[in-house]
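CO-FOLDING WORKSHEET

Operator: S.A.
Ligand of interest: LQXTBERG
Run index: 228
Mode: holo prediction, single chain
Checklist:
[x] sequence pasted
[x] SMILES validated
[ ] output reviewed
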Amino acid sequence: MNHRQDKIVAVVPAAGIGSRMGVEIPKQYLEINETPILGLTLSILLTHPKIDKVIVALHPQDTRFHSLPEASHPKLQTVIGGGERADSVLACLKNIDDEAWALVHDAARPCLTHSDIDKLLASREQFPQGAILASPVRDTMKRGKCDGTIEKTVCRDQLWHALTPQLFLGVELRDNLSAALIENATVTDEASAMEWAGISPGLVSGNVQNIKITHPDDLRLAKLFLAH
Ligand SMILES: Nc1ccn([C@@H]2O[C@H](COP(=O)(O)OP(=O)(O)OP(=O)(O)O)[C@@H](O)[C@H]2O)c(=O)n1
Ligand SMILES: C[C@](O)(CO)[C@H](O)COP(=O)(O)O
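OUTPUT RECEIVED:
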């Protein structure tokens, strides 16, 4: 395919408060092996040879970012994020060239590998409209009822966990995300905005260790994964 211009801009939503983590400081500043999660995530992106620029969305009241060693990296730019993850992503997308590819990656996923980034970038040949890293569900899937019992077993064929990064042409993602938000569509990841616009993004099987740190237990898992 014609990549038009092969400029890759990483977009990192890091403006959340980490309420499910249940601690005082935003989870992206919790440390694993004495390094803040956001620092770990940024260093993976900043050291990837194909990533030209990294734009990070920060909470308006963020006081910690400037203390990270990565904060002064020449490839890095910051913007103020919004009320929801999608608003933060959109704030970043307003700062990228129309023809650049946006590689959107959660600050809270510090176990991403360069080989998974390479796999996603290479998938543009197969999925020119963009793709996401994902992992097929492994367990038997149940739909529950409000009373805590099982309504039914759900067929797990073709069910995937959506991971990040998610890769789309910046201008297309920006237009679809902004239109989906105006229409109050449910947009929990970039692919949902593209799906809303009638596009079928590709699914690229990624490393299951690329977890999102959401609950306290995830910190222990991430530490284990990063040790290997
Ligand atoms: N308004 C928001 C909300 C979330 N995020 C970012 O989006 C990523 C994934 O979101 P999630 O895990 O839900 O983070 P939080 O919103 O911080 O967590 P919680 O939902 O538990 O409050 C995180 O890197 C988070 O910082 C963001 O940039 N802007
Ligand atoms: C984008 C995401 O990480 C994909 O798994 C996820 O949707 C983020 O938000 P969530 O609220 O934790 O689902």
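REVIEW:
Residues 85, 106, 162-164, 188-189, 212, 214 surround LQXTBERG (ligand 2) (CB under 6 Å).
DSSP finds six helices and eleven strands in the chain.
[x] output reviewed
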